[in-house]
C-alpha cells in the first residue's frame, strides 16, 4: 500500500501541483507573519538596548507611565555628584525631545507617521547594549547653527554634510535652519526603525528642549570593567536625591521595548488572522482536489480492496499522499514566506516603520508552525474524501460512474442547518443580550453561519444552478445546456469550489459595509457636533508649539481659540488617553452634559464620556486613579457628557492638570471661532502656520475628510490581505475545472466526435466557470451584507450609529465574479479544446 500510494502520487504529480499552491500560499502567510513579527521584536529589543547606559538615572516616576513625554528632569548637578563614585567610569547627561521634525528639500516632513521624530544632545557615552549610535561622518555639532542627523533620515531628505537642514521644534523657535555637520548611525548594523533623529550640542539642546534649564532628561552612568549593572545601580542610588531613581540599563531597555512591542503586537495577530482565512479557503481547494482524484482512482482503490486491502489501508494511502503534499507545500511555503516577510517590511516602511536595516529573523518556531499547519491542514482536508471513498464497496466502485448518494448530501444539509441555527442563536445573544463576551459571541455566530452555508450549499444552491442551466439553454442553446448540466452533475464539487470564493467575498463585502458605515458615522457625527469654524491640528496627530494659539488669536476676525491637549496616562496597568482644555473656554465645545456641570471642572478633576463612564462603572463623585510622571494621582469625576467627536478622548481635564502631572505644555488641536460677520479666515490662519508643514487649518468638510482617511487606508489594507484568499479561490476554480476536464476526457472526446467545435467546447468550460464564480459571489454578497449589518449593529454604542451599504461596490464585486470565472476557465478550456479526439474516446 505504501508503494502504491507513492506510485499514484508520482503518476498524478501534475494534477496535484495546483492544490499545492493553496498550501504554499497559506503557509507562506503564516511563515511571513512570524518572520516579520520576530524581526520586529528583535529590532526593537536591540534598538532600546542601544539607547540606555549601564545605569539610567531618571525622575522617579518617569518610567512608570504607559505613554506621554514627561517634562520632569534631573538637575545637572547630579552629574558632578556621581562622578568619582566607586565603579563609575563616566557620567553623561542626556537630553531627549519628541516632535523635532526634519523638513526635506521638497518642504515635506521626513517620517513623522508612526515612529517618532526625536531630538536631543550628542554624546559619546557607550550604551549598555554595546553597539550604539556613532558618528560615522563629519564632526560633533557646536551651537544652535549646527546639527547631526541619523544616516537614514539624511539619505531620505537628500542632505549631505554642509547642507542647511530645516527643522521644526516643539518648543522655542518654531523653525530652525542649522547646517548639517555630521551623520550618526549604527556601524555594526541596526536602525532607528523609521524614527528620525536630530542632535545638537548639550547646551543648545537644553535651550531648545528644556527652556534653558541646567538639567537633563536622564543621566547615563557607565560602569568600570568588572562592575555589574546591579552593583553600580546600588552605588549610584545611594548618592541620589529623593525624587530621582537609578535603574539598571537592561531593565530600562526592557520597560521601553515591552511597552512598544505590546502596542504593536496587534500586527502579528492581524496578519495571522488573514493567514488562517487563506488556509480555510485553501482547504476547500484541497478537499475538492482529493475528492476528484480519489473518485478518478475508484477502480484502482476497489481493486486494492478486492485484493485484501482494508478501509483503513485505503484511507492511510490517501493520507500518505496528503502528507507528502503537505510537506512539499510547507517547504515551498516557508521559502515564499521569506519573500512575503520582505514585502511586509517594504509595506510597513510606507507607514513609517522602517526595518530595512534589520536582518530577517528565522526562529525555530516558524519552521515548526509552518510544517504543522501545512501538513495538518492538508491531511485533515484529504481525510474527508478518503473516508467517503473507503465506504464505497469494491463492486460499486468497478462501475463506470461512482456518484455520491443523495442521502449523503441530505445528511450534510441537515447538519449544516443545525449549525446555522446554532450560529443564529449565538449571533442573536451577542447582538441583543447583555451577556459577557458579546463581541466574541457575535464573531462566533458569524463563523458558525458561514460554515453552515458552506455545508448546506449543495442543496440550497440547486435552484440557482437549475436557473442558470435554463438561462444558459435559452441564451446559448445546447452548449449552454451542457454547461448547466455539468454544474448540476456534482453539486458538492461545484459548491465546494464556489464556497472558497464565497468566504473571500463575504469578508470583502463585510469590510466594505463596515468601512462605508464608519465613514458615514463620522460624517454624521461631525455634522451634528462640529463646533467653531476651523480646526487646527498636527497632520501626524502629535503636538505643536503652544505659541501658535496665541498668534492665531491675533488674526483679524478671530473671536476665540480653544486649546486641546492630549496625553497617555497609566490606569490599571494600561494606557489611557486624556484630553485637556481651558475651563474658561470649555463652553465653546458645546458639550452635552448628562450629569454634573462644566462649571465644576477645575484642576485635579475630570469630565467623562458617557460610554466610558458606563463601561468603567464611574459616576459623578468617584475618582479616576492614574499614574503620571509626577506619581499617583486621583482625579475626581465632576460630570458625564455625551460623545463628542471634537473631544478625541473619553477623559477631559484642565490644561494645568496635565502640566502639574509632568507633561509638556504643547497643543494637539485648536478650535477657532470667527467673530460675528467675519469671513474667509482661512488665509490669515494659514499664514500663521505657513512655515510649519506639519500643522494644517481645516474647515468642517476638510476635518471630516481627515477623519475618513484612516478608515479608507484600513479598508484598503484589509482588501489587499483578502486578495490572497481570493487568489487561492480563483486557483480552486482553475484546479477544479482542469481536473474535471481530465475526469471527463472520454466525454469531451465524444462531444468533439459528434461535431462540437473547439470554440464551443471552450465556451462550455467558460460557462461552467462563470456559474461557479457567480454562485460564490452571490452567496458571498448576501452573507457579507448580513454580517456587515450585524457587526455595525453590534458596535452601535461605540459611536458608529449609521449603517450604510455601498451598493455600487457590491455590484462591482458581482461583476468581477463574472470576469474571474472567464479568466479562470482559460487554461482548462484550452486544454479541453486541444485533446486528441481518438485518444480521448479510448481513455479508460
How would you describe this structure in keywords?
single chain, 844 residues, alpha+beta, six-stranded mixed β-sheet, 25 helices, globular
Approximate strand percentage: 15-25%
| Extended strand count | 25
Largest sheet: 10 strands, mixed
Global mean pLDDT: 81
Number of helices: 25
Helicity, in percent?
55-70%
- What's the end-to-end separation, in Å? 23 Å
Shape: globular
Number of domains: 4
Low-confidence stretches: 64-68, 400-406
Structure classification:
alpha+beta
Radius of gyration: 33 Å
Short summary:
This protein has 844 residues and is α+β, with helices and mostly antiparallel strands. The chain has four domains: 55-251, no CATH class; 419-460; 461-530 and 704-844, no CATH class; 534-698, no CATH class. Helices cover 56% and strands 15% of the residues.
Walkthrough of the structure:
With 844 residues, the chain is of the alpha+beta class. It folds into four domains: 55-251, no CATH class; 419-460; 461-530 and 704-844, no CATH class; 534-698, no CATH class. Strands 16, 17, 18, 19, 20, 21, 22, 23, 24 and 25 form a ten-stranded mixed β-sheet that branches. Helix 7 (249-296) runs parallel beside helix 20 (700-743), helix 14 (462-489) packs antiparallel against helix 22 (758-794) and helix 22 runs antiparallel to helix 23 (807-824). The radius of gyration is 33 Å and the shape is globular.
Helix-strand layout with pairing:
Elements: H1 2-11, H2 13-49, E1 55-59, E2 74-75, H3 77-82, E3 88-94, E4 96-98, E5 101-102, E6 117-121, E7 134-138, E8 146-150, H4 151-157, E9 167-168, E10 175-176, E11 179-185, E12 196-200, H5 202-209, E13 215-216, E14 218-223, H6 229-237, E15 244-248, H7 249-296, H8 298-306, H9 311-349, H10 364-390, H11 394-397, H12 406-432, H13 438-460, H14 462-489, H15 491-529, E16 534-538, H16 547-553, E17 558-571, E18 574-581, E19 593-596, E20 605-609, H17 610-616, E21 623-628, E22 631-641, E23 651-654, H18 655-660, E24 669-674, H19 682-688, E25 695-698, H20 700-743, H21 745-753, H22 758-794, H23 807-824, H24 826-833, H25 837-841
Helix pairs in contact: 1-9, 2-7, 2-9, 2-10, 2-20, 7-10, 7-15, 7-20, 9-10, 12-13, 12-22, 13-15, 13-22, 14-22, 15-20, 15-22, 20-22, 20-24, 22-23, 22-24
